[in-house]
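Human:
Take a look at this sequence-structure pair and walk me through the tokens.
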Amino acid sequence: MASPQQLLAVVDTIGTEPPYSYAPGEIDPAVRWLPGLLRDGGKLKVAYVDDDPVGYFLALPLPAYGKLAELADQLASNPMGALYVAELGVAAAHRHQGIALKLARASLSEEPAEQEWVVRTLAINSPAIALYQRLGFRLLDRPRQLHRGRERVFLVRSPPGSNAVRSTHRGDAAAVPW
């Protein structure tokens, strides 16, 4: 099992790798935001390879992530009950091995099938968009955000049989043992 420092280090490293490629100092280090999200009801799953953390999935109640409060009604049919995928990342050296998919599936499966989910990602991050679509998320045409010159899009996973959130598809798209 990794120490908190090892986990924070891998989270920071993932932020500097493509497609994000944030420059040093461009975003706050994980030590400044991750503990707060966990205190606010965040649920964290970490993937390990040889006892080293290589990926993570962090979800929290949508209302706890205050940065989306003004958009909540556009994103979820039940904003107070929706969960927000705040972070899903895998170190570049461990990508394309199914780790992100396993982390997401494990996290999603721990919640009731009726759970509504919201996620945002970079518009250019087609692998992430395809992953979320594979998991049943739908890409929304609107809203979109611009953050540090990078366009972000939202995807929603509504409860089965729900048409509460209308969207347009663009193409087809844990303690998890490794």
Q: What stands out?
A: Helices lie at 4-16, 30-39, 72-75, 99-109, 126-134. The two ends are 13 Å apart (CA to CA).
